[in-house]
Amino acid sequence: ETGVTQTPRHLVMGMTNKKSLKCEQHLGHNAMYWYKQSAKKPLELMFVYNFKEQTENNSVPSRFSPECPNSSHLFLHLHTLQPEDSALYLCASSQEGQPQHFGDGTRLSIL
Amino acid sequence: GQNIDQPTEMTATEGAIVQINCTYQTSGFNGLFWYQQHAGEAPTFLSYNVLDGLEEKGRFSSFLSRSKGYSYLLLKELQMKDSASYLCAAPFSGGYNKLIFGAGTRLAVHP
After folding, report:
1. Residue A51 to residues A32, A59, A76, A98: CA-CA distances in angstroms?
2. How open is the CA angle A83-A88-A90, to the nearest 5 degrees?
3. Would you call A95 an interface residue with chain B, using a CB distance cutoff of 8 Å?
4. Does position B72 have pLDDT exceeding 60, yes or no?
5. What is the CA angle A56-A61-A86, rounded to 5?
6. CB A108 within 8 A of CB A44
7. Count of CB atoms within 10 A of residue A109's CB?
8. C-beta separation of A22 from A4 below 8 A
9. Cβ contact (<8 Å) for B98 and A100?
10. HSE, side-chain direction, 13 A CA sphere, residue A55
């Protein structure tokens, strides 16, 4: 148990579907992150939120839309995804200057 | 540019010592992190080095040389449960929150 919970753990969707990934942290942290992890590639930072404000968008396509309603919750809304978007999506949280704590991820498959 | 390199795979024997190397190029160095990731699980924090030298934590130690852009993770008295991927990461753009990761070193420990 890392204190960061992601749902669902697995998701299969078609290219025309709309779905959302959810992340919740119980650690009292003020920063939350989305990462993409593809096979044999480095973890790629997608978005950073500090105190609910987006402070980083790492050139992510607009078919990925993050939402951070409060410091404990983070969503990633998905629409019109492509097969190359199939990957493990990891959420993390941290305090400023402290190590990031990761969730177990959502394994996403695009048909 | 900003880049982190580490070997793709390593194998070692139970009870032995293994050293996993990492070289990095980042702007505005703010330390170097090591994470462990078992298959299908969240990356978990192992160590953080910001000053040159060796930091020891039980069976695991991490070394940093800022002048050489080099770090290593040393694992002693290897156990089967140490079979995992080891990720090297460093903040980029001078911010603690924005991590760039290496592709990870997959370590297999054999009896």
Report:
1. 9, 21, 17, 15
2. 135
3. no
4. yes
5. 110
6. no
7. 12
8. no
9. no
10. 16
Any residues with CB less than 8 A from the CB of B10 and at least 6 apart, and which? B18, B20, B105, B106, B107, B108
For residue B92 the two structure tokens come to 């980029």
How high is the pLDDT of residue B16? 98
Question: What are the structure tokens assigned to A90, written together?
Answer: 């990891």
Beta carbons of B97 and A4 less than 8 Å apart: no
3-state secondary structure of A103: coil
Percent of chain B at pLDDT above 90? 76
Residue type, position A43, single letter: L
Q: Is the pLDDT assigned to residue B60 strictly greater than 80? A: yes
